[in-house]
Design a protein that fits this description.
- This protein has two helices and no strands.
- 0% of the residues are buried.
- Helices cover 80% and strands 0% of the residues.
- It is rod-shaped, with a radius of gyration of 33 Å.
- It has 82 residues and is mainly alpha-helical.
- The protein has one domain.
- The longest helix is centred in the middle third of the chain and has 61 residues.
C-alpha cells in the first residue's frame, strides 16, 4: 500500500538498474588496469629513476663548477696549498 502511494518501487528499480550498469563498468576498468599496469608500472619506475639520475648529476656538476670557479680560494690567497 505504502509503495503504491509514493511509487517507491519504481524509484528503487531505477537505482538497481543503474547499480548493475556501474558494476559492469567497474569490472571493465579492473580488467583494463590488470592489463595495462604491468606496462605502466615499469615505465614509470624507469622514468623516475632516470629523472633522479639527471637531477643528481646536474646538482653534482653545478657543485663541481662552483667549487672550481669560486673566488674563495685563489693562488694569491695565503690558504692556497698546491
Amino acid at each position: 500500500m505504502f509503495l503504491k502511494l509514493f511509487n517507491i518501487q519504481n524509484l528503487t528499480d531505477g537505482f538497481d538498474r543503474h547499480r548493475n550498469k556501474m558494476r559492469k563498468l567497474n569490472q571493465f576498468m579492473i580488467i583494463q588496469w590488470l592489463i595495462f599496469l604491468p606496462l605502466i608500472l615499469p615505465l614509470s619506475i624507469v622514468s623516475g629513476a632516470l629523472r633522479g639520475i639527471k637531477h643528481a648529476s646536474l646538482g653534482l656538476f653545478n657543485q663541481i663548477r662552483n667549487d672550481i670557479f669560486s673566488d674563495l680560494i685563489r693562488e694569491d690567497n695565503q690558504d692556497f696549498f698546491a
